[in-house]
Amino acid sequence: MSFALAGIAVLVATFAVIWVVGSRMPREHQGRGTRRVAASPAAVFAALTDVAALPEWRPDVKAVEVLPAVLGQPSFRETNAHGTMTFVISESLPDRRVVTTIVDEGQPFGGRWTFELEPESEGAATRVTITEDGWVNPPIFRVLSRYVFGHTATIEAYLANLEKRFRPN
After folding, report:
1. Closest CA to 47 of 165, 155, 128
2. For the segment 27-57, what is each residue's pLDDT rounded down to a tens digit?
């Protein structure tokens, strides 16, 4: 019986320490990743903004529902490994820049991704940089996001899938 109580005490203490550490961490964070993609900025821009086709090249996306525009901006709902999230393409500069913003309320996290496209190799390739300006509410999730998953893990997976999308077979 004393081993069980000791085990419970250790779990409670661990949870408390993680909560305290997380509550002292900033709510906001920024992550960034860059990758060279073997396609023109126009082709990359088209892939990023053709949200209905995301499940074809992003294995983590199960489905996309194109929604009515929000304040004149395209919006969509993505079902992925983390659940369902609603996005608005809040900025779009053809062949140069796309910004997607999570617009769901009441979520434990949110923010926006800025995709910047720079031509390379005389336009035959594109340097894609994704910058995440995000936030995480629950203190425990802040610790997990920073120290377990990393703020750039999803960015790196996205970039790898984008690169693979344009890789010759």
Report:
1. 165
2. 888 999 999 999 999 999 999 999 999 999 9
* CA-based radius of gyration for the chain: 19
The domains of the chain, with CATH numbers, are 2-166 (3.30.530.20)
Q: How confident is the model over 127-136, as pLDDT tens digits?
A: 999 999 998 8
For residues 99 and 87, what is the distance between their CA atoms, to the nearest angstrom? Answer: 10
Listed as own residue / partner, the contacts of 113-122 with beta carbons closer than 8 Å and 24 or more positions apart are 113/155, 115/48, 117/41, 117/44, 117/45, 118/41, 119/40, 119/41, 120/36
The region, left, alpha or beta by phi > 0 then psi within -120 to 50, assigned to residue 106 is left
Query: Is the whole model's pTM more than 0.90, yes or no?
Result: no
User: Per DSSP, what are the bridge partners of residue 86?
Assistant: 77
Cα–Cα distance, 66 to 76 (Å, whole number): 4
